[in-house]
Structure formats: C-alpha cells, structure tokens
Write a structure and sequence with these properties.
Elements (H helix, E strand, L loop, with lengths): L1 H49 L9 H7 L22 H7 L3 E6 L6 E5 L23 E2 L12 E5 L18 H6 L2 E6 L2 E14 L3 H4 L5 H13 L6 E2 L11 E8 L2 E17 L3
Parallel strand pairs: 2-3, 4-8
Antiparallel strand pairs: 1-2, 1-5, 5-6, 6-7, 6-9, 8-9
Length: 279
C-alpha cells in the first residue's frame, strides 16, 4: 500500500513539474512574441518617420506593392534633379541620436536604421531603436568603427530572428540564385547614399573580425581579401569577377546561424558609389 502511495506521489510531483515547465515555456514564448511584435511596429513607425526612398532597382514600383521592405525602392526624380531620395535623419535623430545610418537590401525585409551606442557595444544587442529592451535588438555597429563608413572594414550586426526580421534575411544569400540576382545593397548617411557591391557570402565562426584581423595596414587587408576569395567555408558564394583591393572600403553584415551556437553568416561588400541625396 505504501509503495502505491509513493508511486502516486512520485507521478503527481512529476506531472506538476512538467506542467510548470510547460507554463513557464509558454509564458516565455508569449513574452518574446509580444516583444518582437512591438519592436517591428516601432521600426515601421521609424520607416514612416524617415520618409525613406531609395533608387536603383528596375522593379522598385513592383516591390512597393509586393514587399514592405522594398517600399519606395524606386521613385521618379524631380524635374532637373536625378539625385536619389534620402533619409530624414533630423527626424530620426530627434527620436534617438544613436541612429546614424540606414540600411536597405532589395527584395528582403532588411530596411532598418543603424545605431551605435557610446561606451557600450552590446547595448543594441537587446534594445530597439527607441532604447527600450527588446529581444530582437537593433542593427548596430561597435565603437571600433567610425560612423562615416570610411574605415577599411565596417561590421554591422543583427539578430537572426525566426520571424524573418532584423538580419535573418541575410540567409537568403545562401541560395546561389538569390546571390547571383542581388549584387548590391544601400546604406544611407545624412545627405548621401552609399552603394555596395556584394562579393562574398558564407558561414563563419564567432571570431571578432575587427579584433582578429589587422585592417589598419594594407598588408593585412590584402591577406584577408585573398583568404576570402580563396574560399573560407563550404557552400560559400563568391563573385570572382568583382575586383576588391586593399584601398577599398568594405562592409560585413553579420548574423547568427540557427544550427550552430557559435556560427555566423557573413555577407561582404565593397563600396562602389557615394552620391548625394535630395534629403
């Protein structure tokens, strides 16, 4: 009789523990979902505030209808002025002075402000562009990089979110067809639009690029460029015909991989054009 009571008690405790784990897990998932929803809504408001319009894709008008991330990718120039539309950074700065740039990649959801926090490189890992805590964080750079994109290598970080937000869509470039059909992306600064040509996309580890490689000297930059074009990882996509030299200004977009805790997926590009905007 005692054995039966002990067995019932054991299974009762086990059931209680399993129930508590289920409740806690569901609550955590709910909190994350709400946090991500609020974060994406805040970015949508920022897009409206920025009045962002980019020029440079033939299918821009079609993109506006089919994809929010491609909103305004193409717009007719004003009479006598063929400069691309820019970003209203004055308005964005009034919301958060840490916003200093904007990135947009055609045919993806990547359409976000870029932030940098003074004396705290990890702040935007878990804070949105309004400065509120958010699991999805923001797209950001570290203080090792200047805000003018004149460094030999600038690294932008963003989470690999399951809902496709932040930098998750960088994984689109794992597909060879997508990689081949999307050779460029745009970064906006106050008064300027920078056009970057993508030359490589590949899996890497969590090595801190700016700390592990010496980009301050041409010799170090040449060695790194040779390494990338030689093929750093299996499944790497590379544009062999793109010329990249130690004099060029490079950008790396970095996000996590879902199947490897210390894995990263990198998309790398070289600055090809800097033009003034109308904004």
């Amino acid at each position: 009789m005692r054995d039966k009571k002990g067995t019932h008690r054991f299974w009762g405790v086990l059931f209680y523990l399993a129930l508590m784990v289920t409740i806690v897990s569901a609550s955590y998932a709910g909190v994350r979902f709400c946090s991500n929803l609020v974060t994406e809504q805040s970015y949508e408001r920022l897009r409206d505030a920025a009045e962002a319009f980019a020029v440079g894709t033939k299918n821009g008008q079609q993109g506006k209808e089919k994809n929010k991330a491609a909103k305004g990718m193409e717009r007719e120039s004003e009479a006598g002025d063929d400069r691309p539309e820019g970003i209203d950074f004055a308005e964005l700065s009034s919301i958060n002075p840490d916003i200093y740039a904007w990135i947009r990649i055609p045919d993806t959801q990547i359409d976000y402000p870029v932030l940098q926090r003074e004396e705290d490189d990890t702040y935007y890992l878990r804070h949105n562009s309004s400065g509120r805590y958010a699991f999805a964080g923001s797209i950001y750079t570290e203080e090792a990089n200047s805000r003018d994109f004149k460094d030999p290598m600038t690294v932008l970080y963003g989470h690999n979110m399951r809902d496709g937000s932040m930098f998750q869509n960088l994984h689109f470039f794992e597909d060879k067809t997508f990689f081949a059909e999307h050779p460029e992306f745009f970064i906006y600064l106050p008064g300027y639009r920078l056009t970057y040509e993508i030359f490589a996309a590949y899996r890497f580890d969590d090595t801190h690029l700016l700390g592990a490689f010496d980009f301050s000297k041409k010799k170090g930059r040449r060695a790194y460029i040779r390494e990338v074009f030689a093929g750093i990882s299996m499944g790497q996509n590379t544009r062999e015909d793109v010329k990249v030299t130690a004099k060029d200004k490079l950008v790396t977009l970095s996000t996590c991989t879902s199947d490897q805790a210390d894995g990263r997926y990198l998309v790398q590009a070289v600055l090809r054009k800097k033009e003034k905007t109308r904004q």
